[in-house]
């Protein structure tokens, strides 16, 4: 900074004055030669101004021991190149056992990354990410099913690259965003049958039965569940025994923060059953991420004790290496945000979208929550047909097209179903797609 100020003095200074100056004075004013290492250092610092710091903290208390989390702050798009770094934070809230949560924690990231085309630059990589998340979730679910285990898990999976945050979720673990000015917004959608009418309709249409538990001579108790199985969630990874209409297709939302940054709070339902998004965000403002995570868990336990596994990750995306996200909440906007985000029953994502864009806090890049695979994978999937071998858009397996499902392969389907408009799927993933849509594999879906 000092050096460039001196340069300006030279260019705008009075030449006569300079001539009259003594030699020593001039040499003192002359910009000194900048060592190469300093220049490199300055370059790196400039890059850091563009790329935010990511600081995080985690806190958890176990009741059943079925919550798992993943923190990977040092991933690289191009292995070995730190300039291509991104971070991953995820929560897996298991049910009916822990194997699905552990399996997803260990395999999901690799499955997502394998679905991103090789050699993509940063922009292409971020654009491909929402589709890769869908492919990775479905692939992980198929692989877990093949193990023959019956447990299930929610997944809230967050990828941070620069100021761009991409969140994919199934189930009811949530990710909220607290931005400068006190705007709190939900980046996930709760896939709970009780609170999501669209999901109830989808599950019913695909062959599931939705109802409450019957006890005490026919009295209905508890939240809406899916039968057989009695699961309260409409989407998850695992749950092989419940039915294929409990799909692993995630809701995906991608936003770009302003360079003022923001704070993410990712937590299992042990937090959200007790705290609203607003209360959770407010309770820890002004604290560094590690303390903030502890405080949110403490706050959730204060009112009703430890009723469920309670896990919280706090991630600050901040413009400089400061310990705490500056907190400047504005009262007016707080009132506004509580109107839109105070309840956990928010299913309509349009409100979130218009709200966030309207206040200019973040830039909305992508949002899609459909449970139909064709709508999520798109038609314009990159495909190399020269070899006569197609790569499956979900599991990346190579297969001759005759064995799988290709674009516009309408004749393979019963007249009642729409022709497939998605990319190539292998035999295995095609079976999965049919099963998720309620077309049982035992039913004749192929007409020859
Ligand atoms: Zn496949």
Q: Which hetero compounds are present in the coordinates? A: zinc ion
Count of DSSP H/I helices = 14
Considering DSSP H and I runs of 4 or more, what fraction of the residues is helical?
25-40%
Secondary-structure-based class equals: alpha+beta
Poorly predicted runs of 5 or more residues? 1-32, 329-354, 410-416, 441-448
Name given to the CATH architecture of the largest domain: 4-Layer Sandwich
The biggest beta sheet reads: 7 strands, antiparallel
Order of helices and strands: HHHHEEEHHEEEEHEEEEEHHHEHHEHEEH
Please report which band the strand proportion falls in: under 5%, 5-15%, 15-25%, 25-35%, 35-45% or over 45%: 15-25%
Cα gyration radius (Å)? 26 Å
Terminal Cα separation, in Å?
Answer: 74 Å
Rounded mean pLDDT is 81
DSSP strand tally:
16
CATH superfamily of the largest domain: PPM-type phosphatase domain
Number of domains: 3
Shape: globular
What is the CATH topology descriptor of the largest domain? Phosphatase 2c, domain 1
CATH class of the largest domain: Alpha Beta
Short note summarizing the structure:
With 448 residues, the chain is α+β, with helices and mostly antiparallel strands.
Give the SSE map.
Elements (H helix, E strand, L loop, with lengths): L1 H11 L2 H6 L2 H7 L6 H15 L2 E9 L5 E10 L8 E11 L3 H15 L8 H24 L6 E10 L2 E7 L3 E6 L3 E4 L10 H9 L3 E7 L3 E9 L9 E2 L12 E7 L4 E6 L1 H4 L4 H7 L5 H16 L5 E9 L12 H11 L7 H11 L2 E7 L4 H5 L12 E2 L6 E2 L27 H10 L12
Bound molecules: zinc ion.
The site of zinc ion has 8 residues, from α14.
């Amino acid at each position: 900074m000092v050096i460039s100020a001196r340069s300006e003095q030279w260019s705008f200074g009075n030449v006569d004055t300079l001539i009259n100056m003594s030699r020593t004075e001039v040499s003192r004013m002359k910009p000194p030669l900048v060592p190469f290492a300093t220049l490199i250092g300055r370059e790196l610092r400039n890059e850091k101004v563009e790329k935010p710091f990511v600081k995080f903290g985690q806190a958890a208390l176990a009741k059943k021991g079925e919550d798992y989390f993943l923190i990977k702050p040092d991933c690289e798009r191009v292995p070995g190149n730190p300039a291509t770094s991104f971070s991953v934070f995820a929560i897996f809230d298991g049910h009916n056992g822990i194997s699905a949560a552990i399996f997803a924690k260990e395999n999901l990231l690799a499955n997502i990354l394998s679905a991103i085309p090789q050699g993509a630059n940063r922009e292409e990589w971020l654009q491909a990410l929402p589709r890769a998340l869908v492919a990775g979730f479905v692939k992980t679910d198929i692989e877990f099913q093949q193990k023959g285990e019956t447990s299930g898990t929610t997944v809230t999976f967050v990828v941070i690259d620069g100021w761009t945050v991409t969140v994919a979720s199934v189930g009811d673990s949530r990710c909220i965003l607290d931005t400068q000015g006190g705007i709190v917004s939900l980046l996930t959608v709760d896939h709970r049958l009780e609170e999501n009418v669209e999901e109830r309709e989808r599950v019913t249409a695909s062959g599931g039965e939705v109802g409450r538990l019957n006890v005490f001579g026919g009295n209905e108790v508890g939240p809406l569940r899916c039968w057989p199985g009695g699961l309260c969630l409409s989407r998850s990874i695992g749950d092989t025994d419940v039915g294929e209409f409990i799909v692993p297709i995630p809701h995906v939302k991608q936003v770009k923060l302003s360079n003022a940054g923001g704070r993410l709070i990712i937590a299992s339902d042990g937090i959200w059953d007790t705290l609203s998004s607003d209360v959770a965000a407010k309770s820890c403002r002004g604290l560094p991420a590690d303390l903030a995570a502890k405080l949110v868990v403490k706050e959730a336990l204060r009112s009703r004790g430890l009723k469920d596994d309670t896990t919280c990750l706090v991630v600050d995306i901040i413009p400089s290496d400061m310990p705490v996200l500056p907190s400047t909440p504005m009262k007016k906007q707080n009132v506004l945000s509580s109107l839109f985000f105070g309840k956990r029953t928010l299913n309509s994502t349009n409100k979130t979208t218009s709200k966030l864009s309207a206040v200019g806090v973040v830039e909305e890049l992508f949002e899609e929550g459909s449970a139909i695979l064709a709508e999520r994978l798109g038609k314009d999937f990159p495909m190399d047909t020269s070899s006569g071998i197609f790569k499956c858009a979900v599991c990346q397996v190579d297969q001759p097209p005759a064995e799988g499902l290709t674009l516009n392969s309408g004749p393979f389907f019963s007249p009642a179903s729409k022709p497939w408009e998605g990319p190539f799927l292998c035999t295995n993933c095609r079976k999965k797609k049919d099963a998720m849509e309620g077309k049982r594999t035992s039913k004749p879906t192929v007409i020859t």
